[in-house]
Structures are given as structure tokens and as C-alpha cells.
Write a structure and sequence with these properties.
It contains four helices and 17 strands. The chain is elongated.
């Protein structure tokens, strides 16, 4: 009996020493700690330019751009009045930036866990920098295409003025779940209520485009083709002063009696009166002449294409204009 009791006690002691540790639960994330109580139309227009300021080092650039495009497409397809175009230059309405967690401000939220409370990390934040809404993404999180698109879809909704939702299927629910970005019925209804009409006062154009140039002129263009090269053709003539006479888009290299005329040029070394261009915020003029090609980033891009004639005093010109056509190559 004594031996049996000792054996039982030993077994119980061993069982007591083999307490199974509870498995670690998966990390819990919120998309953002920012809460929007009521919906409101925050934007006065419906054409929005966006840029990606940097890249996440564990996603290739194509995958990252596909995820970003997918997030914008969710809202555009729900409301065709909205337009989102990529514009890699300052002055955009939306900028996307990967940053250290410490740069995001508040990065944790108190959340209920069973009968007690715990903390959840947040993956993103947004803030205004001048006229730009900057979406900040935690660079320490292991982003993939699906998670990046999901978080951006929520942040774009915040930018548009949608409120935070408790609906499980809503893209405006701040609880992060890996799910394909798809708006709930309420999301779709709300974004159409906020932006019920197309923007008819926007000064942008689609290709092909025909116009005249006899002074500086800027064309704001939205590209809708995957072709990335623009073809420019020019014809016509301008009388560039009494003594110089007629210039074509190629311009004049010498004046009357071979008189040097470089001092009358905007760009020294380029033919006087030549057709020239610059793209977006470039400060340097490029020669176009009667034909040139311009490299772009292709579809869903917004760009500003400025043309001018190489003449620093157009007041003494006596008429005429270049006929310019811009189209996809």
C-alpha cells in the first residue's frame, strides 16, 4: 500500500510539472487609430492625383503598384464620378509613404480581449502636409499585395469622407482582416451620396489632342492607354518679327544676313522660334521641332505638358501659330 501511494504521488507530481503553455495568439491589428464619427464630403473636386513616395523593400515595384491601383479602383468602380490618377510630382492630393512605426504617432489601441483589455497595433495613419493627405504605412509590417490593398482602401475612404463602420464586411471597419478589397452595400451607397455628380469644371483632356501654339500653353492630360510613349507632330508657321521673317516648328538658326540671334532665345543654343516642351515640374525645355516623342509612365497617369516657342520677346511677332497634335504612339 505504501509503495502504491508513493507511485501515485510521483505520477501526480510529474503531471503537475507538465503544464501546457497556451499557444500564442496571432497578433491583432487595427488599420488605424483614427476614428471618423460621421460622414462628410471633405473634397470639393472628384479628380485626385496620387503619388508613391517610396517603396516597401520586400515587395517588388510592380506588385506594390498593382496593390495601390486595386485600392483606388475599388472606389472608382463604385462611383464613376471619381477619378484617381498617378502623378509623380509635388502637389498631389494623396501621397503614400512607408515610414518607421515611430513616425506614425499613436500606434496602439486599447481593445477588449475576453473579459480583460489589451493592446492592438495599428498599421497606418494619415495626416495633412500642406494641401496633401499623406497615408503613412508601417514599414515594419510584413506587407503583401492583399494587406496593402486592404489598408489603402480604408484610408482612401477616410480621405473621401466616409465614416468609421462597425459592419464586418465594410472597408471602413478599422479592424484589420486579410480580405480582398470589396465595398459593402453601405460603403457604395455612402460614397455615391457624397459624390453624386461628375466634376464638369476640371481642366483636363484626353488624347488625341489638337491645339495651336504661339506662346506658352499647358495641357493637363489624363492618360488612359497602357502605351507609355506620346507622339507629337507640329506644322504651320509663325512670323517671328519683321527682320527674321517666317519660322517653322524647327526654328531658325541664323538671322538676316547670317546675323546671330541667340540673344533673343529663351534657351540658348536652340533654334530661334523652335517648338519646345517640358513635362510636369521640369524646369528645362526640350526641343520638339516638327516631331518628337515623350516618355511617360503610361495608363492612369496625370501629367502637365507645356509647350512654347523659343522666343524671349513674342510681342514683336506678326502672326501665325504652330498646329500641334499629341497622341499615343
Amino acid at each position: 500500500m505504501g509503495k502504491r501511494l508513493v507511485l501515485i504521488l510521483l505520477v501526480v507530481a510529474q503531471m503537475g510539472g507538465c503544464v501546457m503553455a497556451p499557444p500564442e495568439s496571432a497578433p491583432f491589428y487595427y488599420i488605424t487609430s483614427q476614428h471618423v464619427a460621421t460622414p462628410s464630403k471633405l473634397q470639393t473636386t472628384c479628380l485626385f492625383r496620387y503619388s508613391t513616395e517610396n517603396t516597401y523593400n520586400r515587395l517588388d515595384d510592380n506588385t506594390q503598384q498593382e496593390a495601390i491601383q486595386q485600392a483606388f479602383d475599388v472606389w472608382r468602380k463604385a462611383n464613376p464620378n471619381l477619378q484617381f490618377v498617378r502623378y509623380q510630382a509635388p502637389g498631389v492630393e494623396i501621397a503614400i509613404r512607408f515610414v518607421p512605426k515611430s513616425s506614425m504617432g499613436s500606434t496602439t489601441l486599447q481593445m477588449p480581449v475576453g473579459l480583460v483589455r489589451g493592446e492592438a497595433n495599428t498599421l497606418s495613419a494619415s495626416r495633412r502636409e500642406n494641401a496633401t493627405n499623406v497615408i503613412l504605412l508601417d514599414e515594419s509590417y510584413p506587407w503583401d499585395k492583399e494587406s496593402l490593398s486592404r489598408v489603402l482602401t480604408h484610408q482612401i475612404g477616410v480621405f473621401l469622407g466616409l465614416n468609421t463602420s462597425s459592419e464586418v464586411g465594410s472597408m471602413m471597419n478599422p479592424v484589420f482582416r486579410k480580405q480582398a478589397p470589396k465595398l459593402s452595400t453601405q460603403d457604395s451607397l455612402l460614397v455615391n451620396q457624397l459624390y453624386p455628380q461628375a466634376c464638369r469644371d476640371l481642366a483636363y483632356s484626353f488624347l488625341p489632342l489638337n491645339f495651336q501654339v504661339n506662346r506658352e500653353i499647358t495641357q493637363k492630360i489624363i492618360l488612359t492607354s497602357p502605351k507609355s510613349i506620346l507622339s507629337v507632330k507640329a506644322s504651320g508657321s509663325i512670323v517671328v518679327g519683321f527682320w527674321l521673317g517666317v519660322s517653322t516648328p524647327i526654328g531658325l538658326d541664323r538671322g538676316l544676313f547670317n546675323f546671330p540671334i541667340d540673344q533673343y532665345n529663351i534657351v540658348l543654343g536652340m533654334n530661334h522660334g523652335a517648338l519646345m516642351y517640358r513635362l510636369n515640374n521640369d524646369k528645362t525645355w526640350s526641343f520638339c521641332g516638327n516631331q518628337c516623342e515623350i516618355e511617360t509612365e503610361g495608363m492612369n497617369q496625370y501629367l502637365e505638358l507645356t509647350f512654347n516657342i523659343n522666343d524671349n520677346n513674342i510681342s514683336d511677332n506678326l502672326g501665325g501659330a504652330y498646329q500641334v497634335q499629341v497622341k499615343y504612339k
